Amino acid sequence: xxxxxxxxxxxxxxxxxxxxxxxxxxxxxxxxxxxxxxxxxxxxxxxxxxxxxxxxxxxxxxxxxxxxxxxxxxxxxxxxxxxxxxxxxxxxxxxxxxxxxxxxxxxxxxxxxxxxxxxxxxxxxxxxxxxxxxxxxxxxxxxxxxxxxxxxxxxxxxxxxxxxxxxxxxxxxxxxxxxxxxxxxxxxxxxxxxxxxxxxxxxxxxxxxxxxxxxxxxxxxxxxxxxxxxxxxxxxxxxxxxxxxxxx
Length: 248
Description:
Layout: E1 3-7, H1 19-25, E2 32-39, E3 45-47, H2 68-71, H3 87-94, E4 100-105, H4 117-127, E5 134-138, H5 141-150, E6 156-159, H6 172-181, E7 186-190, H7 198-203, E8 208-212, H8 217-226, E9 230-233, H9 236-247
Parallel strand pairs: 1-2, 1-9, 2-4, 4-5, 5-6, 6-7, 7-8
Antiparallel strand pairs: 2-3
Helix pairs in contact: 8-9
């Protein structure tokens, strides 16, 4: 059965990547809880989606160019005074749940990688004995290559950017070969870009297909109908109800 990943803790139910979202997602019947990692200027791993403040958190500026002390004063929009959480805080919330972690390593504003972030994340998960519960994702294939060098047994998923699936050059078989050559055995595409035959194209290259962006009931039903490996959703509550209905 297709796995459900609560995207940013359920971003259309609670403020995304907040402690509140993760506490509430941790009691749901989901398979994964998904969240994003950046790093502060002074080396603290933090949970936040955008490279810039302003959309989900107060203030402005690039999170990678701010020290952790500055970021601790940044309030998450829509919360009761919550601030940007660090990696360990979210692991503290999620560890007791037993739910698998789906961690997306982000790049800096402008697209550059945070030097050494992969080793830092892997080391922390090893220290906390959570590496075997973790699947890594990224839009940046070299990031996944480095993660596999550090943790060869860890599942990895290449998140395929929309521009790589633009017509008329759309070629999912080629992208699957590129992933497999990097050691990555699963790719995920935005569900709105899915086409008939995508699953076959991936299977032909020994690569598994997943979806991201399944945020309403029709999209969720499509993800289950297509039989993909997993999908991320901002509405894990709907996904759970649909799966329960399918299972009877």
